[in-house]
Amino acid sequence: MATHDERHAATLGDTAEIAMAVVDHLRGRSIGCAESLTAGRIASAIACVEGAAEFFRGSVVSYHESVKRKVLGVNAPTVFSLVAAEQMARGATRVLEADVAVATTGVAGGTPEDGVPVGTVFIATSVEGDVRSRPHHFDGDPEAVCAAATKQALTDLLEVLASRMEVAGADQR
Q1: Per-residue pLDDT tens digits for 56-68
Q2: Which of 45, 82, 101, 120: disulfide with 92, CB 3.0–4.6 Å?
């Protein structure tokens, strides 16, 4: 069985590569994060990209519900939802004065919360006001769920940024 460090190292390479690709697609825009269950992992991946001071505005690790509500302005009935993730992404762009944000919330382990099964993660992206969100489900212990959610959040953001570049390229033709 793999140790915590071995599992973390196995996902770190992929996550770091995706973070670098996200940064390559920022095209002069600033980025921030609002993280609940991932607890700063996304921010760490982005901050480790060379030149981060030029584009990384920061992160709000909003693990506790009160932080989501008071700092990020979440008013969704439950903080375990797509609406909450979307509001977190909007809140991150506002609080951090960022052009781009990614947000995560969900249930990594323990027991279901507000009827949301363990392993359910809600990820939202905000790119210049365009907010998109998707639910995901990951199997495993909390460490595995958090690692998978981190990688997926960066992947979702990369897909949105890349699709916006394709649309912009088509508009210029």
Answers
A1: 999 999 999 999 9
A2: 101
Angle at 51 between CA 93 and CA 46, to 5 degrees: 50
pTM equals 0.90
Both tokens of 78, joined, read: 């439950």
Q: Are 60 and 92 in contact (CB under 8 A)?
A: yes
d(CA 38, CA 97): 21
Residue 7 to residue 147: CA distance in whole angstroms? 9
What is d(CA 134, CA 18) in angstroms, rounded to the nearest whole number?
A: 18
pLDDT in tens, 2-30: 434 334 434 445 999 999 999 999 999 99
3-class SS shares of the chain: helix, strand, coil, % to 5: 45, 20, 30
From the list 102, 118, 122, the residue with the least C-alpha distance to 110 is: 118
CA distance 41 to 125: 16
